[in-house]
Structure formats: structure tokens, C-alpha cells
Amino acid sequence: MLGNNIVDNVYLACGVTDFRKNIDGLAIIVQESFNLDPFSRCLFVFSNRNKDKLKILEWENDGFWLHYKRLEKGKFKWPSNKEGKTLNISQRQLRWLLDGLTLEQKQAHKPVTERIII
Question: Mean pLDDT for each consecutive 10-residue tract of the chain (118 residues)?
Fold first, then answer.
């Protein structure tokens, strides 16, 4: 998603994450709190209390990437009703979130799952 890596899943860490945590601290949250593998081909997305900063943890063959985005104005449309849980979203929904949109876009084209050849 962010690089040229293949991503299987994108997980949002719902609620608030302490942004003093670095790669090791975030990897421990992924492993111990969410029972997920930080070394998998997944993106793990975290938000701060003000919802104006995001960190994305990504494993790439020989090491971790820690992507960080800080908004100068505004806030991310972060889901807040699932404190302490993860939410599995699509890469498309992550792009919406990074663009300042909500995870559900009623006006967006729905993905095509079946194709009929005429």
C-alpha cells in the first residue's frame, strides 16, 4: 500500500494509542493486545488522542517501517466506538481515511465482485 509491498490486511487499532511508543512498543500491542502477528503482510494503523496524527506499522522482509502522518489542520475520521479492539478495513478505506474521509462512503462506486461476460 504505502510502498511496493503486497498487503493482505489493514487493521485499525480503535481507540487511542500512546504516541510515545515506537516500533517495538507498537509491535507488542499488535502481538499481545490484538493477538495478531506484527511480522505478517499487514498494515497496523494507530491514532493519537486528538486524532490528528497516525502511525502505520509495516513489516518488510528485513525490518519494520513506521509511517507517520501529522495533520496541520483538521482531524482524521477515526472510529471511536470500539475502544481497545481492531477493525479490519480495506486498502481503499485506508486511502479514504488518509484523505480525511469516513470509512464508509455512500457515494463511492461499489467494488465489483463478479463479472458477467456477454
Answer: 75 91 96 94 95 95 95 88 79 91 76 74
Whole-model pTM? 0.84
DSSP string of 4-59, one letter each residue: S---SEEEEE-S---TT--HHHHHHIIIIIS---TTSSEEEEEE-TTSSEEEEEEE
Q: Are 13 and 34 in contact (CB under 8 A)?
A: yes
Question: Grid coordinates standing for 91?
Answer: 486498502
Is residue 116 domain-resident? no
In a domain, 62, yes or no: yes
pLDDT at 20: 94
Residue 7 · residue 43 · CB < 8 Å:
yes
In this prediction, residue 85 carries a pLDDT of: 83
Give the structural domain span for 27.
9-98
Domain membership flag for residue 70? yes
Number of domains forming the structure of the chain: 1
Cβ contacts of 37 within 8 Å, gap of 6 or more: 30, 31
